[in-house]
Amino acid sequence: MTNAPQVPAMHALPDGEAELSLVVRLPWEDVARLGQEAGRLASQMQRPVTLDEAVSYRLRSARPSASHAKPSGEQPAAVSSGVTSLPRISGTA
C-alpha cells in the first residue's frame, strides 16, 4: 500500500470527454519512445508537451475515429475480455 493521495479513477471533463487515471508498467524502451513522441509534438506545437499528453495524442491517433460508448451487451466481436495489446509507438522522430 502506498501513501500516495487517492485520485479518482475516472472523471468527466467539461468538453464531454472523460479522463482516466491508471498506472501502467512500461519497459524503458517504451518510455524513451514516448519521450521522442513528446519531443516531436513539442516541436510541432511550439510548446512543452508532457508524457501523458503524448500518450493521449498517440492513443487518439492510433484509431481511425472516436466512437461513442455503446449500450452494454453491444461490444464489437473483436473485443476480448481483456486488453491484449496497446498500439506501439514508432521509433521515428
Description:
The chain is globular and about 30 Å long. The protein is built from two helices and two strands, in the order E-E-H-H. With 93 residues, the protein is mostly helical. 4% of the residues are buried. It is 31% helix and 6% strand. Helix 1 (28-45) packs across helix 2. It has a two-stranded antiparallel sheet.
Itemize the secondary structure elements and their pairings:
Blueprint: E1 10-12, E2 18-20, H1 28-45, H2 51-61
Antiparallel strand pairs: 1-2
The major sheet is characterized as:
2 strands, antiparallel
The number of distinct β-strands equals 2
What share of the residues lie within helices? 25-40%
- Helix count? 2
Low-confidence parts lasting 5 or more residues at pLDDT below 50? 78-84
**How far apart are the first and last residues' alpha carbons, in Å?**
38 Å
The backbone outline, from C-alpha atoms, is globular
Widest beta sheet: strand line-up: 1-2
Structural class estimated from helices and strands: mainly alpha
Which percent range describes the beta-strand content?
5-15%
Radius of gyration: 16 Å
Global mean pLDDT: 75
The ordered string of helix (H) and strand (E) elements is EEHH
**Oligomeric category:** single chain
